[in-house]
Every structure is written in C-alpha cells, then in structure tokens.
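Handout, section B. The chain below has 334 residues.
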Amino acid sequence: MFKIDIHTHILPLDLNSVTGKFQDSRFLKISPLDAETAWMEKDGKHFRKISCNCWDQHVRSNECRETHVDMQVLSTVPILFSYWAKSAEAYELSQFLNDHISEIARSSPDRFIGLGTVPMQEPQLAVREIERCMRILGMRGIEIGTNINSENLSDPKFRPIFEAAQDMDCAIFVHPWDMMGEDQMRKYWLPWLVGMPAELSRAISSLIFGGVLEQFPDLRIAFAHGGGSYPWTMGRIEHGYNVRPDLCAIDNAHPPSEYNGKIYFDSLVHDADALRFLLNRFGANFIAMGSDYPFPLGEAKPGELIESMDDLSDEVKQRLLAGTALEWLGMESL
C-alpha cells in the first residue's frame, strides 16, 4: 500500500550559519561529533544527540525504502520555532529553514513534501512568510506550535494567520512545544510524556472555544500525536461546555462535538485500542499516518500499527496510510 508520513522532522546541518549570528543563547546550534552524529545544543548545553537521518535527505530516502514509506511530509524540529526570539531574527531563521526544506522537496518531489515554519510572534511577518511558502517555495502548508509564548492560539492577534492560511489553501500541522508545567515536571521525561498530550488538548480546545474553527471553516488543520489527550477527555470538555456555558461558550455558541469531522489527527498513539477509539470517534477520513521520524517517541516502522490491525479493511488501511494525508494537504493525487 502507498504510504505518506505526515509527521517527520528535519533540520539543516549548517544551521549555525544563521543561528550563530544571533546573540541570544537560546537559539539552537549543531555540534557535529562525527559524520553520522551530532549534538543539538541550546543555552550552551547539550540538548539531544541526533543521527544523520535528522539532516541527510539521502539517508532518509534509504530508510524510507527500508520501511516502505513512499513519501515524507517534512517539517522543522519544534525546538526551532523560536517564538521567544526578536521578530526580525525569528523571521530570518524561518526563511532559512523553509528554503532548506523546499530545496529538498524540489530535488526529490516523488519522496518529500514540505511544510514551512513562520514567526508566529509577529503575525504580519508570519502572513508574509506563509505567502512565500505557498506561492514561491511550493509548499503545501505550515507547522505551528500549540501555544505562542504561553498565549493560546485563540488570541485575536493570530486571526490574520489563520485567515491567510485559509485564503491560500495552506494546510496547518499543530505540534506541541514549550509545554505547560515543564519547569515543574522535568524528571522522568514528563514534559514529553504528559505535557505534550496536554498541550494538544489545550490547542484544540482553544481553537474551538475561541471560535477560530467557526470563523475559518475551510481551514485544513491537523494535530500531532493523535490529538494528545483531547480525544480521551472530549466527553469532559463537552460536558463542561454544556453545564457552564457562562465560562465556556462566551466566544463560540457551538459545542466541541460539532467540530468532529472538521479537524485531522495523525495516527501516532502507539496502541491498537487507542487507534480504534480514535477511529470510532473521528473516522478514518480524518486520521493520517504520522510517525515522528526520526525521534525515539515515534513509530520505528511508520504505519506498522495500522498494518497490524486485522480488524481494519484494506480500504480503511489505505485511507489511513495515504488517502487522508492527500486530502489534508489539498492534493487530489500525486
């Protein structure tokens, strides 16, 4: 079956050529160890060791062949969002990252599709970069974070970004970063295990309660990691909306359940019963294979969970493995 992985991350090995120009130590830098490994460094400290599949498109292509993935949707590593940065520097970094991804996608259009990143902290520049990504670089969409410097995506200042995305037929992939409560739960990798799912629920709930999805009904927006904790706590969120409309329904008169069938999710839930639940709640037409390649919390063999489920028909499997991705990306066919 044809497979499109909508959740993969990449960065340029020559990242320091742009981040090295900036004074703020929070900008990510790359410190190579050898030809196959490097350290990601932040604030002058080791953040994460990465392998060459994080930057080398040829290694990625080989691994795609080994795991029978036909196409990867490339997006930046979320630590590079840099929403805390000065607007001009964040804009320059976004352009650098987007040029890198678009060059790879243009060089291997049968293997890679590009998503851009934009300086969300400066909506005017973000809109300008969306236009460049879509109309000049030939990308299919953008990746954004679940919050912007602790501000929810429902904040009115971000409306021009969502309006531009809708007008330019730009898909949006929402990925968690800068997790709430991170400083209080660093031990046991809890920001990634607990904070990330909560961040996604925060983002989805904010977009619904804030009326963003109501105002921009044609947005094609997908959420990483199976939507985090949102699908599993949706009953509670819906109940809260119903019993306390004075708190929840102040910006949108429509309940959360009304947006089932209007938002997309990747399949990265690591458990067959969890994927069945997601399918029962939202349907195969709104779930697309995503692996979080090439990081350890991802699915080592993309699509393996889907392919292993004997209770899914071949038609449903093909929809999950590629059909939904094509629709979300606004592509009728390859």
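Note. The mean pLDDT is 97. Compare this with the example in section A.
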